Amino acid sequence: MIRLMRAPDLMLAQHWVNLLTQAGIPCHLTNRYMQGGAGEIPVDQCGPDIWLENEHDKAAAMQIVEGPVKNELFGARFNWQCDDCGEWLEPQFTTCWQCGAARPPGDE
Ligand SMILES: [Zn+2]
């Protein structure tokens, strides 16, 4: 088993696992409840991790996972998070309503 990547949240992780499974790539989701248990994962890195059973599936899996996510994460339709106060904001806002900070560059 190899770790493909860490998902930003459990919903997205589950979504990726569904996509990969549909594509016929055997995969697993770990740390769902942040209970750790796997010795090789540092305690401070708890989050939903996607694991692949076969290392040779990695390239295909990355394409599946990264394609739509990049568009969503960096696309204008996706919510963004304020660097200063951590508030989550709707895509149409260019400044944080909470603290007034500008939307981070490269996040457009
Ligand atoms: Zn803010």
Short précis:
A 3-stranded antiparallel sheet has the order 1-3-2, with helices on one face.
Helix and strand topology:
Elements lengths: L1 E5 L3 H13 L4 E4 L18 E4 L5 H17 L5 E2 L6 E2 L19
Antiparallel strand pairs: 1-3, 2-3, 4-5
Bound molecules: zinc ion.
The site of zinc ion has 8 residues, from loops.
Notes on the protein architecture:
The chain is α+β, with helices and mostly antiparallel strands. It has two domains: 2-74, Alpha-Beta Plaits; 79-108. Helices cover 28% and strands 16% of the residues. The chain is built from two helices and five strands, in the order E-H-E-E-H-E-E. It has a three-stranded antiparallel beta sheet with strand order 1-3-2, with helices on one face. A two-stranded antiparallel ribbon has the order 4-5. A hairpin with a 6-residue loop joins strand 4 (80-81) and strand 5 (88-89). The termini are far apart. Zinc ion is lined by residues 82, 84-85, 87, 96, 98-99, 101.
Structure keywords:
108 residues, alpha+beta, Alpha-Beta Plaits, 2 domains, 3-stranded antiparallel β-sheet, two-stranded antiparallel sheet, 2 helices, 5 strands, binds zinc ion
